[in-house]
Structures are given as structure tokens and as C-alpha cells.
Amino acid sequence: MTLKKSASLALMALAVSFFIGCSSKEDRDKYDQWYGSGSKSREEAALVKLQSDRKAAAEQASAAAAEKAAAPAATPAATGDTSAAAAPAADAPAAAPKRKPVPADVSALLNKHACFACHQAYDKVIGPAYSEVAKKKYTPDQIVELVHNPKPEHWPGYPPMAPLAHVPKADIIVIANWINSL
Ligand code: HEC
User: Fold this and answer.
1) Cβ neighbours around 144 below 10 Å, total
2) Phi and psi dihedrals of 119, rounded to 5?
3) Are residues 70 and 117 in the same domain?
4) pTM for the full model?
5) How many structural domains compose the chain?
6) What distance in Å separates the CA atoms of residue 155 and residue 126, rounded to the nearest whole number?
7) Lower CB density within 10 Å: C or N end of the chain?
8) Which part of the chain is the Cytochrome c domain (predicted)?
9) Contact 108, 100 (CB under 8 A)
């Protein structure tokens, strides 16, 4: 009889302690979340907020960028001024074919005589761009003479080009005809 009683008491005690154990864990979680060291749940909440904030900021930025991109296209149309919109489009194809590649034979001569060290077709290096020389409208013979006996006074602001008397006339004629085609 006593054994049965104590056994049932023990069983009850076990059940109660189990119940207390469960409830106290739940309580601790709840307490932690609001007041205590429930750092994990708070970290998670903060992370979710951070992510959603970032997403919102990115959406705002891309919306602003889209607005910006749309603005220049919309403005000339709105003002009826099509020239501003047409100008860059017209410039681009005009500038592209102007920069012709240097023909292989001319390029070989410019390399051989080291003209490329100081001259480029369209860009100023040490000497003027050949496209600038072309504007002077020299005859090929004049160019031969100027390579053999440069006249630095033609190009104020540039250092004087050294006389290149060793460069064959025939080579300079080929170069000169190409310069005048620029
Ligand atoms: C060390 C640099 C240098 C090298 C190499 C050089 N040039 Fe020049 N060249 C210049 C400079 C600087 C000028 C402008 C000043 C001058 O004319 O003296 C010039 C000017 C010219 C002019 C314009 C002349 C004028 O009076 O308008 C021609 C054409 C020219 N160079 C062709 C050539 C050719 C072709 C070669 C290769 C055979 C060559 N240059 C090599 C530096 C150089």
C-alpha cells in the first residue's frame, strides 16, 4: 500500500516537475524576448529590418536613376528642342569614320623611320598630329623638304623636329600622300 502511494506520489512529482520545466522554459523565452538576453531573436529582428531597409534604399536609388535617365530624353521633347537630342547622335557617326586606321604600308614606313615616336595620325604626341599637318595642305614635295629640313617656326609651342635627311624621298612621298588624305 505504501509502495503504491509513494510510487504515485513520485509519478505526480515527476509530472509536476516536467510541467514546471516546460513552462519555465517558455517563460524564459518570452522574458528573454522582451527584457532579457534574448539576443538571438532580437538580432534576427534587427537583421530582417536591416535587409528590408537596404532593399528599400536600393529600390529608391534605382528609381532615382531611372528618373535621371528618362529626364534628358524627355526634356528636349517637352521643350520642342530636338537639336540637343539630335546633336550627339549626329556627332558620333561623323567622328567615327574620321579616324581611319593607318594603312599597313604607311604604318610600316612610320614605324621603320620612327615617326610614330613623335607623331600619331589624330593625336598630338611630341610633334603635331598628322591630321593637323594635313590642314597645312603641303604638296608631297614640300613635306619631303620639311622632313629633311624642318621649319620649327611652322609649329610654335612644339620642340623643333630634328632633320631626318636619311629618310628616302620615296618613303616620305608615300607618307605625305597619306597625311594629305587625313
Ligand atoms: C623626335 C620627334 C620626331 C620624330 C621622330 C619625327 N618628328 Fe616630325 N615633327 C616633330 C615636331 C616636334 C614637329 C613640329 C616642330 C617642327 O616642325 O620642327 C614635327 C613636324 C613634322 C611635320 C610638319 C612640318 C611643318 O613644317 O609643318 C611633318 C610633315 C613631320 N613632322 C613628319 C615627320 C615624319 C614623316 C617623320 C618620320 C620620318 C617624323 N616627322 C619624325 C617631331 C618629330
Assistant:
1) 20
2) -130, 140
3) no
4) 0.58
5) 2
6) 11
7) N
8) 90-182
9) no
